[in-house]
Amino acid sequence: MPAPFTANDVARLQETLDEVVADGAAPGGVVVCGTIDGQKHVLAAGTVAPELGELTPTEHTIYDIASLTKVVATWPLIGQALATGLVDLDAPTRDVLPAMTGEAPSGEATLRQLLAHASGLRASTRLDHYRGADAPLHELLCREPLEDTPGRHRYINRGYILLGLALAHVNGVPLDHLADQLWQRIGMTSTVYGPIARGHHVAPTEQRIPGAPRTWGAVHDDNAALLGGIAGHAGVFSTPRDLATYATWLLDAYAYGDAVLGEWLRASLVPQAVIEPGLDRGLSWILAAGGRVAYHHGFTGTSLYLAPDAGRYLVICTNAVYYGNARTRIAPLRTLALKTISATWHPEALDE
Q1: Whose CB among 139, 201, 208, 241 lies 3.0–4.6 Å from 59's, allowing a Cys bridge?
Q2: Using the 8-state DSSP alphabet, how is residue 35 labeled?
Q3: What does DSSP say about strands 293-298 and 279-281: parallel, antiparallel, or unpaired?
Q4: What are phi and psi of 61, to 5 degrees?
Q5: How many distinct helices (H) and strands (E) make up the chain?
Q6: If we measure between CA atoms, which residue out of 222, 96, 108 comes closest to residue 164?
């Protein structure tokens, strides 16, 4: 049986969510924590946005999940392509992209290296620099020289842009269509690539220029925006409810031996590169607690945590980027979330 979240766990999470909202970290937010056997707690605080008055966010509020796109769209689709023989993790990425001419040093990075952020590709990605170029994007990216020796961890969005382009090519289907098919099968009925219509059910993000309209229903990430909102690294909108559904689906596959997804998750929990002492990168996921916890963050103020052996998950959805740097503003909530999801093995962590 999975270890349930205690009343104390839930109270601490609610208190911290309330505190970060009261401190101005985000207009509001939702935390969902639960287990594979159906336990589920939905916590909320604040408002969807000041523009919407006192409207409290719910598990059905839609958020720009930013880099959670990597683990909610790109990562499972790579696992699916691997299972059907469309890709080889240790083959050069250029082999699963449209044919290119000339040298392509960045195209020699493997899919495994791209997934693990250990490819050595250039870390800075400015797709606006390619405006007016005379070659397709995948070729422009692959022509770039490596910036580092492959194997060292460095968070690189362009690797996931390439993975998204590769998925569309090998499947012969646009990335957003592939993702829609997956999400509908899981039951994630409110998860889509943007843009989406703005409204009371959608949390806005940042106002880039004073006096200009706030970003609302359109992707926050500039590079994803230049790709029409559909990319391997960002662009997905989802709800706390759908992310909890996704987490439960993953935990179920892991626990009951799904021949495709369960094995893909297990393989992804094997460390590929060291991030810092106590943290490793698996395939897409950050690994903590000796590999027993996997998680990922989104720049806008979202997070997804899994403890597969314990059958537990935790979702954070905020639009903290509404006020600027989401990473520092909601750090206390993310820190507590990691401690809480890890407490099955380290209960003393919550007594610090």
Answers
A1: 241
A2: E
A3: unpaired
A4: -70, 140
A5: 12, 11
A6: 96
List % helix, strand, coil for the chain (3-state, nearest 5): 40, 15, 40
SS3 171: helix
**Do residues 145 and 106 make contact, with C-beta atoms less than 8 angstroms apart?**
yes
Question: What pLDDT, on the 0 to 100 scale, is given for residue 325?
Answer: 84
pLDDT, tens digit, for every residue of 314-336?
A: 999 999 999 988 888 899 999 99
Residue 18 CB contacts under 8 Å (≥ 6 apart), including other chains: 45
Cα gap 265→275, rounded to integer Å: 19
The tens digit of pLDDT for each residue in 239-288 reads 999 999 999 999 999 999 777 899 999 999 999 999 999 999 999 999 99
Q: What's the token pair of residue 44?
A: 């909320």
- Burial of residue 216 (CB within 10 Å: 0-12, 13-18, 19+) is buried
Give pTM, 2 decimals: 0.96
Q: What whole-number distance in Å separates Cα of residue 116 and Cα of residue 83?
A: 19
Residue 81 one-letter amino acid: A
**Could you give the angle at which helices 75-83 and 175-186 cross, rounded to 10 degrees?**
90
Residues in contact with 248: Cβ distance below 8 Å, sequence separation at least 6, in sequence order: 34, 36, 313
How many residues does this entry show for the chain? 352
Closest CA to 165 of 127, 137, 123, 133: 137
Question: Radius of gyration over alpha carbons of the chain, in Å?
Answer: 20
Specify the amino acid at residue 329.
R
Name all domains of the chain by residue range, CATH numbers in brackets: 1-352 (3.40.710.10)
Residue-wise pLDDT for 219-241, tens only, equals 999 999 999 999 999 999 999 99
